[in-house]
Amino acid sequence: MSKTISDKVLWSIALPGFGQLLNGKYLKGLLFIALEFLINVYSGLNEVIMLSFQGQIAEAVDRTNYEWLMFYPCVYMFAIWDAYRDAKGQLPSTATLPFVLGAYFGTVGIIYSSSFTLGGKLLGPVWLGMFAYGVGALLGYVLYRALRQRGT
Known about the structure:
By secondary structure, the protein is mostly helical.
């Protein structure tokens, strides 16, 4: 059964490294999976996600190891981009913009997540990180489309 580009990207979104495994890049895939687990364990990400979904944002902030969690958006987005690039072939350099800006904004969101409030409520590392990632990825996509229309 042949896997499409979207299958590979979606599997990489589910767990960094799975897209690489589907692309036949086994060493790279295992490296991304190992990095995912290493960062996840040392940052306390699963517990932080659980607490965030339960609305216990202050406790999630307290339990987060920010020194490790700040690596996550970059590893996550690079793994997704890499699976996409390997599946798609040669891409213009501007095609990286949604991935790069998503990782950058997501990391900045995590940095400010212990103090940033919206409507007097603390958002925490999960919600602010995901929101900032979305803003960055959307901005990157808009820039990519504008540059493509200009022919650069």
